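Protein modeling request. Please complete all fields; requests missing the sequence field cannot be processed.
Requester role: graduate student
Desired output: 3D structure, token encoding
Chains: 1
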Amino acid sequence: MRLLKQATTPLAVSLAIILVVTAVLFYFKSVQHQHHLVFFYLFPTALVAMIYGSVLSMVCATFAILVAAFFLYDPIYSLYVSDPRDIGELILFAVTGLIAAKCTAELMRSPEKRL
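Delivered output (115 residues):
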């Protein structure tokens, strides 16, 4: 039971960070009419990579892609993305997010573990 709690707490915290960022970005999209907000997910994924490592950060980047498609791209509340440019933006974010997650986690590792 304790092992399960230790495994789920970082995941829950990481997904909660993504959901908070999504709420802020949804506000900017709906009230301020801003576009191309998906790249703001790079900050929380890098934070998760620094704290918990690359695997959990990659999970967060994947979750951020799904949440962004659902809340930030037209049609809202659907995983379908109507504009091909938006699909390209999501793919570019996915590649950038996954690479950044791995690089950030590698930079945060102790020098003894790098060898």
